[in-house]
Design a protein that fits this description.
The complex is a heterotrimer. Chain A is an alpha/beta fold. In chain A, 31% of the residues lie in helices and 22% in strands. Chain A has one domain: P-loop containing nucleotide triphosphate hydrolases (Rossmann fold). In chain A, helix 6 packs parallel to helix 7. Chain A starts with 38 loop residues before the first strand and ends in a 5-residue tail after the last helix. Chain B has one domain: MetI-like (MetI-like fold, Orthogonal Bundle), CATH 1.10.3720.10. Helix content of chain B is 68%, strand content 1%. In chain B, strands 1-2 form a two-stranded antiparallel sheet. In chain B, a hairpin with a 4-residue loop joins strand 1 and strand 2. Chain C has two domains: 43 residues; 226 residues, MetI-like fold (Orthogonal Bundle), CATH 1.10.3720. In chain C, 76% of the residues lie in helices and 0% in strands. Chain C starts with a helix and ends in a 9-residue tail after the last helix. The chains are: A alpha/beta, B mainly alpha, C mainly alpha. At the B-C interface, helix 1, helix 3, helix 4, helix 5 and helix 7 of B face helix 1, helix 3, helix 4, helix 5 and helix 6 of C.
């Protein structure tokens, strides 16, 4: 097996899953060996009205690693991503069937509060969306404040920590009270990352986070992701294959709502098993 | 690259110090806002019900006669609304007749002809006119407009058109025609703004196609814009009519307040709205009050119907908001 | 022949254009005229007496409209107490929670109510409140004006909230914030300025209303010390004084009309300046 240098601490790498790993009970996320997958997705189907958007998708997302989701426009990448934090709950015509577990717990189980799910699974969007009426500091701490955390000292501490993790602290530490929109596009996106990290999720979902940014800002975001993966599970949707190759350990290729192939990144790009995958990564379509 | 501090995450799924989200907050808030939205429906029902209940006595007593008699006699308990129906419709229709061409011409000017720097100030001024309170226009009407009409245009009107049956002098100036003119001024802004929107909705490609055929400015407007917008223009007119029908204070101050069916446009009269307003501060109960409510019911029905028609024509529920008096 | 016809078409077009310009001038003229006349006839009466004195009997000089001005402020305040919460919360429902059917029904009802003549509100509140409960009072008048504000504010609030981009809501949901907190702290805050302008415009509108007051507030020559008593308001005072045969009162009516118009226009212009060209979520 040609192990990836990025993910050497991980246990056995998985290819397109047939037999799902045994599901352990919810374990405290102490460092080290989490043999359990972060997400265990089985037979996920999503409809928007009568439009069958995702068809029987099954795969496992591994912890403390970057998993990339690639595919041409309209293949269901974003739909897949959004089922991981129950964002489809907000769309009346959306219907989700199948099973997704997060560290062993059923995300869509009866009585599971979607709001709590979203605190564990954070999301960063394609176009940065810092709240326009708030300052930089307020943006970062909004998730904490509106969820009941009031102690100023704790808020400041978390804010600084999140901004450092998002590689933004040095650039904004002197103007924390400036309006968030005064930042550049790349900075705003890192602000959104800091905002998501502040509530201390376990997973970070990223939906084409750098697609609206220039190459320099994109490079900064990619650098950031490589740092973050030491502590978080990251799932990133991207239409930029080179980006997927640069930063991810595993890649899933979607086409027309189906998962075509899921494997280690270098295998997907150099020696894919499926013809469609090969056609896509060599640029024959999409 | 900024140093990344140890993240120090905890295992607790909800994170340190974060309050668990209750379901109660969402439910309560949703219910509260729903109740407030329902208030609008409740208000509408309340208005309709109050007027119906209030006019029940008069409806049962007079039946259809109410609409064809023109006596308003509190002493003898005999009430008829003909004068006011007549006054309402005549004054509103004349107001529309005056205002519609002016508004359309203005709308054409603003959308097709005006240079850029003129447009915004002109539009703003017209919208300001819509904000002028009815009573202010009434004051202006009493002391400026009516004397001017009485001394200038009316004598001329009588001199050249006095053969017409509906133009008979002499007149104090406080008459149906004066009220119509004032109401026309008040409905100019709304017709103009709706007409402007309707004209602006016509895609430029239509105009360009007409120009490319060698049409003149006016022909382009006629062929490409006006013909496209007939429905919208009707809607704008309906909206203006609706506003005119409900106009109260300015009319009340100008129309002369007579309960007799006016013989000419230059005679005093009354509209449904101004008659109701005129009865204020009287001690009202029983039949006179009920008759008043019936007038109110008629006024409501007439404005509701015109507004519904207008919205159907313009195509969107909730285009501009027409204003009452 | 062709050339003559072509010239004729051009002449016709120019005539129509000139006619349209004339129409525009005629339409714009009244505002200028009214303002000019008001300034001409009313400005000179705006002295200290006017703003601080109560009305004096005919024949005495030095009367003013102080109680009317204060009364108007009181009534607009009372109206706002009802109109703003109901309107804003109702607008929130329409924008953030509503179902298509409910929304259509509420909007339809609101549009009908917005097109209802305000005198109708007057007699409705007269029947519902004045006769059975309070008699002529500030409460009744405030209620009538509040009823007028509700459908106005609910429409403008909804329009402004809908303009807030969905991406802000999504980002807030993704942070695991409960829905109601999202609406109050993020959506409402973002549209806040725009919603306030809608409220101010509604306030300006009811400040100028006279008809509903006829059957609810009655009028009062003295200060109102008790909200369940009749109260004077500026538009009503203007109406009384203008309709009277006394020259001194007429003069004061001009002054009152000037004050009222300036107030309404100032509010409208201020609102326009604040929101000029900016989408609500960008107005800082």
């Amino acid at each position: 097996m040609n192990c990836m240098t990025k993910d050497t601490q991980l246990p056995a790498l998985k290819t397109v899953p047939s037999a799902p790993a045994p599901v352990p009970p919810a374990a405290p996320a102490a460092a080290a060996v989490a043999a359990a997958a972060t997400f265990d997705v089985r037979q996920l189907n999503v409809w928007f009205g009568s439009h069958h958007v995702l068809r029987s998708v099954s795969l496992e997302i591994l912890p403390k690693a970057v998993t990339a989701i690639i595919g041409p426009s309209g293949c269901g990448k974003s739909t897949f991503l959004r089922s991981l934090n129950r964002m489809h709950d907000l769309v009346p015509i959306a219907r989700v069937e199948g099973r997704i577990t997060l560290f062993g717990e059923d995300l869509y189980g009866r009585g599971v509060d979607a709001t709590l799910v979203r605190r564990r699974v954070g999301m960063v969007f394609q176009k940065s969306n810092p709240f326009p009426t708030m300052s930089i500091a307020e943006n970062v701490t909004v998730g904490l404040r509106l969820n009941g955390l009031r102690q100023k000292a704790l808020l400041l501490e978390r804010m600084e920590r999140s901004l450092r993790m998002a590689a933004l602290w040095d650039e904004v530490k002197d103007r924390l009270n400036a309006n968030a929109l005064s930042l550049s596009g790349g900075q705003q996106q890192r602000l959104c990352i800091a905002r998501a990290l502040a509530i201390e999720p376990e997973v970070l979902l990223m939906d084409e986070p750098a697609s609206a940014l220039d190459p320099l800002a994109t490079a900064k975001i990619e650098e950031l992701i490589l740092q973050l993966k030491l502590d978080y599970t990251i799932v990133i949707v991207t239409h930029n294959m080179q980006q997927a190759a640069r930063i991810s350990g595993h890649t899933a290729f979607f086409y027309l709502g189906e998962l075509i192939e899921f494997d280690q990144t270098n295998r997907i790009f150099t020696n894919p098993k499926q013809k469609q995958t090969e056609d896509y990564v060599t640029g024959r379509f999409g | 690259m900024n140093s990344v501090a140890v993240s120090g995450k905890t295992g607790s799924p909800a994170g340190i110090g974060l309050a668990p989200p209750g379901k109660a907050g969402d439910k309560v808030f949703r219910l509260l806002t729903w109740l407030m939205a329902m208030m609008v429906l409740v208000l509408l029902a309340l208005v309709g019900w109050t007027l119906c209940k209030g006019s029940a006595l008069s409806l049962t007593r007079f039946g259809w006669n109410f609409f064809v008699h023109s006596d308003w006699d509190p002493v003898n308990g005999d009430f008829g609304a003909l004068t006011f129906i007549y006054g309402t419709f005549v004054s509103s229709l004349i107001a529309l007749l005056i205002a519609l061409p002016l508004s359309l011409g203005t709308a054409v000017y603003l959308t097709e002809l005006a240079p850029g720097w003129v447009r915004q100030p002109a539009v703003s001024m017209i919208e300001m006119l819509a904000a002028v309170p009815s009573v202010v226009l009434g004051v202006w009407g009493i002391f400026v407009m009516v004397p001017w009409l009485r001394d200038g245009p009316y004598p001329l009107l009588l001199k050249y058109f006095g053969f017409l049956p509906f133009l008979r002098g002499p007149t104090t100036g406080f008459c149906i025609l004066s009220a119509s003119v004032l109401v026309a001024i008040m409905i100019l802004p709304i017709i103009t703004s709706i007409a402007r929107e309707v004209f602006r909705a016509v895609p430029d490609s239509q105009r360009e196609a007409a120009f490319a055929l060698g049409a003149t400015r006016w022909e382009v407007t006629r062929l490409a814009v006006l013909r496209y917008s007939v429905r919208g223009i009707f809607g704008a007119a309906m909206l203006g009519l609706g506003r005119a029908l409900g106009e109260t204070m300015a009319v009340m101050m100008i129309i002369g307040n007579s309960d007799k069916t006016p013989g000419s446009l230059l005679s005093p009269g009354n509209t449904l709205a101004s008659k109701i307003a005129n009865e204020y501060a009287e001690t009202l109960n029983g039949l006179p009050l009920s008759a008043l409510f019936e007038l109110g019911l008629m006024l409501l029905l007439v404005t509701v119907v015109t507004n519904i028609l207008a919205h159907l024509l313009i195509g969107a529920i909730g285009a501009r908001q027409p204003r009452g008096a | 022949m062709n050339r003559w016809y072509h010239h004729w078409r051009k002449i016709k077009s120019s005539c129509v254009s000139a006619l349209c310009l004339l129409c525009a001038l005629v339409v714009i003229a009244p505002l200028a005229l009214v303002l000019f006349n008001l300034l001409q006839k009313g400005a000179s009466s705006l002295d200290l007496h006017f703003f601080t004195q109560l009305s004096k009997p005919v024949g005495e000089t030095g009367g003013g409209m102080a109680n009317a001005i204060v009364g108007s402020a009181t009534l607009v305040g009372l109206a706002g107490l009802i109109g703003v919460p109901v309107g804003v919360l109702g607008g929130i429902y329409l924008s953030e929670f509503g179902s298509p059917r409910m929304n259509w029904a509420v909007r339809f009802a609101a549009d009908i109510l917005n097109g209802t003549p305000s005198i109708v509100w007057g007699i409705v509140v007269y029947a519902l409140v004045v006769l059975p409960i309070t008699g002529y009072s500030a409460y009744a008048a405030g209620l009538a004006l509040g009823f007028i504000m509700i459908p106005l504010i609910i429409r403008t609030t909804e329009e402004m909230l809908v303009l807030v981009p969905n991406s802000y809501r999504e980002a807030a949901f993704a942070l695991g914030i409960p829905h109601w907190k999202i609406v109050l702290n993020i959506v409402l805050k973002t549209a806040g300025k725009a919603i306030i302008t809608g409220v101010l415009l509604a306030a300006a509108r009811v400040a100028g209303e006279t008809a509903p007051l006829l059957f609810t507030a009655l009028g009062n020559d003295y200060w109102n010390h008790n909200l369940s008593q009749p109260i004077e308001a500026l538009p009503h005072k203007i109406f009384i004084y203008a309709s009277s045969p006394f020259a001194d009162w007429n003069r004061q009516a001009w002054a009152g009309a000037l004050v009222l118009l300036l107030f309404v226009l100032a509010l409208n212009i201020a609102v326009r300046l604040v929101t000029r060209g900016r989408a609500p979520h960008l107005a800082r």
